[in-house]
Amino acid sequence: MTVIRAIVTDIEGTTSSISFVKDVLFPYARHRLPAFIETHGDQPHVQHWLHEAAREAGIIEAARQEIVEMLLRWTDEDRKSTALKALQGMIWQEGYEAGEYRAHLYPEVAARLHAWRGEGLHLYVYSSGSVPAQRLFFRYSEAGDLTPMFAGYFDTQTGPKREPASYERIVDAIGERPEHVLFLSDVVEELDAARAAGLHTGWLLRPPLDVPAQPRHPAYTSFDAIEP
Ligand SMILES: CSCCC(=O)C(=O)COP(=O)(O)O
Ligand SMILES: [Mg+2]
């Protein structure tokens, strides 16, 4: 019998709509990125991620303006760059704190997270968004502060979401065996990687997406259909 003790969830397309991330968060950060780098670019934590972005692009020396243009291009390409995600997270903080938006959640998500916690399951997040951005997302969610629901957060500093080794690191970090962990995502390649690492998987196909007749992973249209 399968005993699930921990659930690791993706955010975009899983707990929350792709449109909130693409149409609200990304444009907010894109619009403010040049001014943010201008005013905060000398702070060590910002400098660190600017250097990381340059390193990722294989650039040895670049003017700050070139890095900014590259980051804007990466935003448009939805590149899952750890450096870009770290910088976006810093910019989103202002928007959350000013009440410009709250993080979207599908309607059943908050109640289901509460129910799973009540059943003693340990909950974690694994998203391409940086860990600070994930904390902000759930702190300023439409359903209020959900950060007490989560025991930990993982981002691409743990590894790319399409590589089995990332999931091996996560189960090690949370002190579970993979067969006791369920990973939820909307992206089949992420689920393939998690399964290759021995985790159980749940594929979120939110309406109006169609559920294939023979899905590659157990498929759900809502968290309410999942019975861990
Ligand atoms: C933490 S909110 C922003 C999410 C984000 O930047 C992103 O790329 C979403 O990726 P996910 O891995 O959650 O699908
Ligand atoms: Mg996703």
UniProtKB/TrEMBL annotation:
<dbReference type="GO" id="GO:0043874">
    <property type="term" value="F:acireductone synthase activity"/>
</dbReference>
<dbReference type="InterPro" id="IPR036412">
    <property type="entry name" value="HAD-like_sf"/>
</dbReference>
<dbReference type="InterPro" id="IPR023214">
    <property type="entry name" value="HAD_sf"/>
</dbReference>
<keyword id="KW-0486">Methionine biosynthesis</keyword>
<keyword id="KW-0028">Amino-acid biosynthesis</keyword>
<dbReference type="Pfam" id="PF00702">
    <property type="entry name" value="Hydrolase"/>
</dbReference>
<keyword id="KW-0479">Metal-binding</keyword>
<dbReference type="InterPro" id="IPR023943">
    <property type="entry name" value="Enolase-ppase_E1"/>
</dbReference>
<comment type="similarity">
    <text>Belongs to the HAD-like hydrolase superfamily. MasA/MtnC family.</text>
</comment>
<comment type="subunit">
    <text>Monomer.</text>
</comment>
<keyword id="KW-0460">Magnesium</keyword>
<dbReference type="GO" id="GO:0043715">
    <property type="term" value="F:2,3-diketo-5-methylthiopentyl-1-phosphate enolase activity"/>
</dbReference>
<comment type="function">
    <text>Bifunctional enzyme that catalyzes the enolization of 2,3-diketo-5-methylthiopentyl-1-phosphate (DK-MTP-1-P) into the intermediate 2-hydroxy-3-keto-5-methylthiopentenyl-1-phosphate (HK-MTPenyl-1-P), which is then dephosphorylated to form the acireductone 1,2-dihydroxy-3-keto-5-methylthiopentene (DHK-MTPene).</text>
</comment>
<dbReference type="GO" id="GO:0019509">
    <property type="term" value="P:L-methionine salvage from methylthioadenosine"/>
</dbReference>
<dbReference type="GO" id="GO:0043716">
    <property type="term" value="F:2-hydroxy-3-keto-5-methylthiopentenyl-1-phosphate phosphatase activity"/>
</dbReference>
<keyword id="KW-0378">Hydrolase</keyword>
<dbReference type="InterPro" id="IPR006439">
    <property type="entry name" value="HAD-SF_hydro_IA"/>
</dbReference>
<comment type="pathway">
    <text>Amino-acid biosynthesis; L-methionine biosynthesis via salvage pathway; L-methionine from S-methyl-5-thio-alpha-D-ribose 1-phosphate: step 3/6.</text>
</comment>
<protein>
    <recommendedName>
        <fullName>Enolase-phosphatase E1</fullName>
        <ecNumber>3.1.3.77</ecNumber>
    </recommendedName>
</protein>
<dbReference type="GO" id="GO:0000287">
    <property type="term" value="F:magnesium ion binding"/>
</dbReference>
<comment type="pathway">
    <text>Amino-acid biosynthesis; L-methionine biosynthesis via salvage pathway; L-methionine from S-methyl-5-thio-alpha-D-ribose 1-phosphate: step 4/6.</text>
</comment>
